Input
Amino acid sequence: MPAHLDLAPYKLPSKPVQFFELNTSMLGRTILDTSKSSSSLLNSIENNIKGEVNDVIAGVAKALNIHDFYSAHLLNYCEGYFTPGPLANKTVDPDKNVTQCSNRTALFHFDPTAAIQKELKPGISLADLRWPSAIKDAVHTVEIASKAMFVLYCVGAAATGLALAGAFFGVLSDGRAAPLINNALASLALLALGIASAIASVIMSKVVHEVNKRGNDVGISASKGKTFLGMTWAATILMAIAAVAWIYEFVAHRRRQTSYVFEGKKGRY
Output
């Protein structure tokens, strides 16, 4: 078996509503060059791992006691393994088997460095795996932004719910107040969802860029949650349409009133 496996990490397909996903199935490949590691446990891995490439990778992950992937969500994160293995071949693409998820928590912030360090076997540190410090720095810088995003989504969801309820009464009423109130609610939801969506896009781009830039040499890659981005921007666009629709309804209502007044004055003569 070669001392160093020069294999690019398999890019994960996006999973619905995930924020981003971290692929660690190749993490530890560089430690197979045992001359660069000071850990006695790491030095024993090469002698204990045999077989095909997928078996080698699975053996490294098992020896390190880490999972193949970690998917970050708005309220928690999940982890699991690829089946039948992390690498695709001509007939089989890797499938993801989620084994467990953390408890859902408000103002959640996913820290992959802490999550993986917690799972590593005693005697192994992220320094042994050459974990890039830039990844930890990138994740740390977006912690406050993630919490702000959560608050904005809550505001946006509440305003959207009120706007939907207001739309029902607005259709039944014939006054000018209903369009104005509904426009205010839709505009508030639009503002909150728009800012949250922008923050989500920036955070995803920053984290994924830094992970893929700094982590390739140690077998780490990341992918954006494209479905999450699609959903959040779709909601923003829908609220923009709703806000414009209520403005149009307000203007149309005034025109109808003006027309009624004009017709009434003509009828007097």
Remarks:
- Residues 1-16, 49-54 have pLDDT under 50 and may be disordered.
- Strands lie at 20-23, 69-72, 77-83, 95-101, 221-224.
- Helices lie at 40-43, 45-48, 53-64, 112-119, 133-141, 143-172, 177-215, 226-268.
- Residues 226-268 form the longest helix (43 residues).
